[in-house]
Amino acid sequence: MASAAGNTIFKQPKAVYAVAFACVVSFMGIGLVDPILPALSKQLDATPSQVSLLFTSYLLVTAVAMLFTGWVSSRIGAKRTLITGLALIVVFAALAGLSGSINGIVGFRAGWGLGNALFIATSLAVIVASASGGFAGAIVMYEAALGLGIAAGPLLGGLLGNISWRGPFFGVAVLMAIALLATAVLLDKTPRPAQKTPLLAPIRALRHRSLLTMGITALLYNWGFFTMLGYAPYPMELSAVQLGFVFFAWGLLLAFFSITGAPWLQRKFGTAPSLYGALSLFAVLILLIGVFTDNRWAVIVCVIASGAVAGINNTLTTQAVMLVSPVERPVASAAYGFVRFIGGGLAPYAAGKMVDHWNIHVPFVVGAVAVLFGVLVLATGHRPLAAADAAMAAGPHGEGSTARAASADDVAGEIADEFGGAPDAIDYEREVQHR
């Protein structure tokens, strides 16, 4: 019976595989540039702080765009939103590869971020609507794409970056163009939602303390995460290929613990205690990088190990948002994505300034402190998280239960961050409901 279910999951319409392939390429984007950061700095005569703007422009535009993706998709439909996002990624990735200056690449990465926001906000909804085998089958497909993309991005970046720093950008453009063509041809036209999302809905949602608390926690966590991602490659002093393999190992751990480790911890210890532990351990690893920055192997080991706790954090923070949010899931996701990516966008820029004014140790220490502050902020929202965990355990018939069925519309924007995480949380919630 389990074998039959597995066969059903992977016997999908061609449109599902087309969108899943696009998801793989999209999730490659976060780690793709890491192996080529030192090469960009050297060959374009740019400082590390200037190169860090590749993350800043990409993530800040993604953050702001998160506020509008629901408004756009509810008016033009999921397929058109998806196609628009893919087209923007193809164009701006190719332009980044053609650029001859760091400022040009930074600008084109901003356009790439806009396309990515439109794509990731609708891709899961499209897979859910098109997949056979129900909701669970769609989630498995999405998680497989997520894991493969996160792990393969740095490896592809390293292999192509060893030829030229332009290689990763052209590689993404070509792969996304294939995905765009396949999606346009194979995916049927999707109907427009019956209800349009108000433009200011995500901003209004931040008036709810529980959602704002989780958003600020994620902002502080992302500060440490993108400090590590943006500056750890420099003290390693490795080639593009070697850096690619380091971050490939990091991505494998991130994907594995996001999909398997985080749900197990949540069920065993609860959301809040699991997050306290994972965030604290992540802060310790970043602090160790800051203290032992001059030791290449210490940095490599800490970076790879951070993939495990980052996977747990990414899953549980996104799940926590959905557990405590008093608004619709797409709106909550957009509001949360906006706040958390602000931290991810500002951190590399601030880290660059710290390096310019002091030394490379400082941004890692500051990043570790930021993550610890995130633990303190999270602690102020312990009660609603504990209540939500209890409601999930009680099931839909328990008193005060907040468990809800997840329709395709509900999850349209839920996985609106590059690291996924919420798919398994949604799936588990549905399992609890049907016990």
From TrEMBL:
Q: Which residues form a coiled coil?
A: none
In this chain the Major facilitator superfamily (MFS) profile domain maps to: 15-386
Say which domain of life the source belongs to.
Bacteria
Alphabetized, the UniProt keywords read: Membrane, Transmembrane, Transmembrane helix
Localization: Cell membrane
RNA-binding listed as a keyword: no
Where is this protein chiefly located?
membrane
Q: How does it sit in the membrane?
A: Multi-pass membrane protein
Note the InterPro entries from the entry: MFS, MFS_dom, MFS_trans_sf, Tet-R_TetA/multi-R_MdtG-like, YfmO-like
Does the keyword Transmembrane belong to this entry?
yes
Question: Transmembrane segments in this chain: where?
Answer: 15-33, 53-73, 85-106, 118-138, 145-163, 169-187, 211-234, 240-262, 274-292, 298-324, 331-352, 358-379
Q: What is this protein called?
A: MFS transporter
